[in-house]
From TrEMBL:
Residues 1-107 form the HTH marR-type domain. Pfam families: MarR_2. It comes from Agromyces archimandritae. PANTHER family: MARR-FAMILY TRANSCRIPTIONAL REGULATOR, TRANSCRIPTIONAL REGULATOR, MARR FAMILY. This is Winged helix-turn-helix transcriptional regulator. PROSITE patterns: HTH_MARR_2. It comes from the Bacteria. Gene3D superfamilies: Winged helix-like DNA-binding domain superfamily/Winged helix DNA-binding domain. GO terms for molecular function: DNA-binding transcription factor activity. GO terms for biological process: response to stress.
Length: 111
């Protein structure tokens, strides 16, 4: 799962509380209909579930499931392995230089 669907799972994992579809849309930079489709797809594969909001029964909260957390951990592990493979031929000095340049690049990225 890549792109907006992955960003949705990451946003849910980072959130201190369940999120509404509107909150998910804002967090990942998509419109509400797109967020609703992403949630539906994630519900169908078991990565998230819908729950009634205990404070407002008309509102639905989206909750990351254990399967969704496992999916994120697997994706992180795969990325980590890919990064380690890509950096295997770098010396310690080159890794330090690369990290500094990458940090500078990220800091300069337009918001």
């Amino acid at each position: 799962m890549l792109g907006a669907a992955h960003r949705m799972l990451v946003a849910l994992a980072r959130s201190d509380a369940p999120m509404s579809v509107g909150e998910i849309a804002a967090a990942i930079g998509v419109d509400q209909p797109r967020a609703s489709r992403l949630v539906q797809g994630a519900v169908e594969i078991g990565h998230v579930r819908r729950e009634a909001d205990p404070d407002d029964a008309r509102r639905t909260s989206i909750v990351l499931t254990d399967a969704g957390r496992a999916h994120l951990e697997e994706a992180r592990s795969m990325r980590r392995g890919s990064i380690e493979t890509a950096l295997a031929g770098f010396s310690d000095e080159e890794r330090t230089q690369f990290a500094a340049l990458l940090r500078r690049f990220v800091d300069a990225w337009p918001a």
